[in-house]
Amino acid sequence: MPCYRIDGVTPVVDPSAYVHPTAVLIGDVQVGPGCYVGPNACLRGDFGRIILKQGSNLQDTCVMHGFPGTDTVIEANGHVGHGAVLHGCIVGEDALIGMNAVVMDGAVISARCIVAATAFVKANFSCNEASLIVGAPAKVLRRLSEEEIAWKQEGTGAYQRLTERCLETLELCEPLDQVEANRPRIDAGDLKPKQKHQS
Asked: Pick from 33, 69, 70, 39: which is nearest to 53 by CA?
């Protein structure tokens, strides 16, 4: 992976974490045990500190950054979907940030919350635990059900298993020039999209 020291500060990646080779880590970045960092993610610890705690994931093309002296944190088992931007904020334990959502400076997403895809969370936002947060600007719509929280946890578990799968089997290769007979499907479990979580 492209990993850069700046001002004498070097990123730290736990050996049990997986960071895709195209992700970029700069400076004061800490990737904890069992974390997953996806393709083309950018973790810029050149101003503030960037922290991923145990079992969290930051998916492809996500960005983490912050102002000087701040910490941008994904707490344990946090889950950040494709293309999200986190700037100087805290993502609470077991919370989910949806695809292409933006969470701004000083915002605190409490534990077990879900921020909907494309939401814009303004600076200094706060909420209660287990909230469903939607819109631009984002607002709390309601409390999450136990079923919705369990669905989120199942998805995070799938990414924790993906970390292990990547460490064990992911390898650079040349593509085939045609589809082989009886091509196998990847066995990644049976996680399904949540069709109804904004009622």
From this structure: 33
Q: Are 80 and 57 in contact (CB under 8 A)?
A: yes
Q: Is the pTM of this model over 0.85?
A: yes
Q: Which two tokens stand for residue 35?
A: 């974390």
| DSSP state for residue 154 in the 8-state scheme | H
Residues 114 and 148 sit within 8 Å (Cβ to Cβ): yes
Residue 74 lies in a domain: yes
pLDDT tens digits, one per residue of 27-79: 999 999 999 999 999 999 999 999 999 999 999 999 999 999 999 999 999 99
Question: The domain containing residue 32 runs over which residues?
Answer: 3-143
CATH number of the domain enclosing 28: 2.160.10.10
Q: What does the alpha-carbon distance between residue 40 and residue 61 come to, in Å, rounded to a whole number?
A: 5
